[in-house]
Amino acid sequence: MSDTHHSYDQVRLHSFGDMLREQARSRPQHIALVEQDTRYTYAQLHHRINRLTHSLQQRGVTSGSRLLWLGQNSHRVLELLGAAARLGAIVCPANWRMTAAETVRTLNDFDPSIVFWQESEVGDIAREARTAARPGNAAWIQHDGSGEHSYEALISAGADEDDEARVNPDLPLLAIYTAAFDGAPMAALLSHTTLMLQGLMNTQSQLIAETSSYLVSGPMFHVGVMMGTLATILAGGRCVFVSRPDAQTLLQVIAAERVTHAFLVQPTVEQMRRLNQESRYDISSLFATPDMSDWRMPMVMPAGAPLVAKLGGYGQTEIGGLSVLLWLGGSGAGRPAPFIQVKILDEDGNETAPDTPGEIAVRGALVMNGYLGQAKENARRTRDGWHRTNDLGLRKADGSIVFVGPKTTMIKSGLENIYPAEVESCLRSHPAVADVCVIGVPDPTWSQNVKAVVVARPGAEVNADALIEHCRERIASYKKPKMVTFVDALPRNSAGGIDRAGVDAAHGGGNYPRVA
């Protein structure tokens, strides 16, 4: 390879860190991040990332190192992504609602070099998990504290210099733990390129521009929230952070910051409506009416946005979020983004005929780098040279993609995806449970609630409250059953497995997520 060729290999590299560098040059005075009284321009963000990068280097962070965020929403997550991007490291914003046991599992699985933790609301769980986790060499930095081991002290200790090191944009930058298909969540690794291309798609889908003000009100461990956040940074807009979605705080922030985009789930919107019945807060920058009657989905955006005009699509964390979109044409879920290919495959890896269901398979620049530390699962998912999504779909004669449903049954409760296998695994760990089937039952507010149909061991004394509490202590509270029914036996299919359709029919199951 000639020197000139090698030189252009380096010149062509463009990472997430390079994108932020250019924003500091192109929009130095534009506000990038807002959180309560804190406001940073893109130039100030650049200087903070300089310092953070050098401090992380001094602590041994290098390419492939992993940084875990155990806290709620904060502008500091964006700073960490910027610094990690320069070093080739990986950032995981974990679910701050995890139990101590779930946090221990995440610590052991992710094996971070540094843990950034939060005292407010979740400090007790973080400390309990730190004590119980496998011994390691991770440093613990408190992001909402002060003193030697605080985040701001870490920033202050670094030099405000940028060596403009070149980083391969195909390296993973963001890790997001997906819902548990088989009983335990796995960390999907998303590259710089994936994040930037998906961000570009979101700027178009949601009409995000440098004049946009995005309210980071949903959890940043959710791909939909993170992609909206990154799209805003990509466009040169401002991200306004709230630690968690408190209805009154959201109304105040929307009015004060003239928010144009947000992520708001229906129960929160209902609370906001009640508080704003007298139009105390001017939310006209985000909603057409004070009662928010134009709310249609958690991703709130201008009425003229393509995603509002043609609401529909398909996606998952492993392909960067929504990657098949109705506004791109067709019907059903629509057509794929120009950065991926989609096939509908049968179990043998053959493409199915039009209108014939099979597994949705994807390849291209939006597909993840794989699950962290899951070589066997990665090999299974890519056995045909495509990423098998574990979701069923079909392709219509006009080329449109239709999402049929998960291969593994999923329960949708509000914003959250809940996989029965994880809840069943938790319930089976109770000594009184002989067998169990977890189903979703319709709920007018949350779409579905979790219901456990349990076979108790002979002679065991157990009630519904005990099993619900058992789950509450071991998995995130939103995953626990809201109701428990005891039966003598569960119906079985011809293969000996639990007949989930039979359990649904007998116990009120239904309203599982589908897109026609």
CATH architecture of the largest domain: 3-Layer(aba) Sandwich
Give a quick account of the main beta sheet: strands, pairing sense, barrel closure: 6 strands, mixed
The beta-strand count equals: 25
Distance between the termini: 52 Å
| Shape summary | globular
What is the residue-averaged pLDDT? 94
Number of domains: 4
The main sheet orders its strands as 2-1-10-9-11-12
Question: Structural class of the secondary elements?
Answer: alpha/beta
Structure write-up:
GO terms for molecular function: acid-thiol ligase activity. Pfam families: AMP-binding, AMP-binding_C. This is Acyl-CoA synthetase. The protein contains 16 helices and 25 strands. It is an alpha/beta fold. It has a six-stranded mixed beta sheet with strand order 2-1-10-9-11-12, sandwiched between helices. Strands 4-3-5-6 form a four-stranded parallel beta sheet, with helices on one face. The protein has a four-stranded antiparallel beta sheet with strand order 16-17-19-20, with no helix packed on it. The radius of gyration is 23 Å and the shape is globular. The model has no long low-confidence stretch (mean pLDDT about 95). Helices cover about 30% and strands about 25% of the residues. The protein has four domains: about 230 residues, ANL, N-terminal domain (Rossmann fold), CATH 3.40.50; about 60 residues, no CATH class; about 90 residues, Roll (Luciferase, domain 3), CATH 2.30.38; about 100 residues, GMP Synthetase, Chain A, domain 3 (2-Layer Sandwich). The termini are far apart.
